[in-house]
Amino acid sequence: MKTNEEIMEILAAYDLTGSYRKAAAVVGCDHHTVRRYVRLRRAGTAAPEPVRRAKLIDAFMPKIEELIEQSHGKIGADQVHKRLVAVGFVGTDRTTRRAVAAAKQSYRAGHRRVHRPWMSEPGLWVQWDWGNGPRLGDRQVTLWCAWLAWSRFRVVIPVLDKTIPTIAACLDVTFRAFGGVPTYCLTDNEKTVTTSHIAGIAVRNPDIVAIGRHYGTQVRTCIPADPASKGGAEHTVKIAKRDLLPTQVNLRPAYATFAEVEAACDAFMAEVNARPHRETRRTPLEMLAEERFRLHPIPAQPYTAAFGTTRRVHDKDATIRVDQVRYSVPHRHAGQQVFVRWHGDDLIVTALIDSAPVEIARHHRSSPGSPVILDEHYPPSARGQRTPRPVNAAEEAFLAIGPGAAAWLEEAAAEGVRSIVSKMAEAVALAKLRGAAAVDRALSTAATAGRFTEGDLRSILDHQTVRDGATTSLTCAGEKHSLQPGTGGWTGFGQQLDPRSH
Question: DSSP string spanning 408-476?
Answer without folding.
Answer: HHHHHHHHT-S-HHHHHHHHHHHHHHH-HHHHHHHHHHHHHHT--STTHHHHHHHHHHHHHH--SPPP-
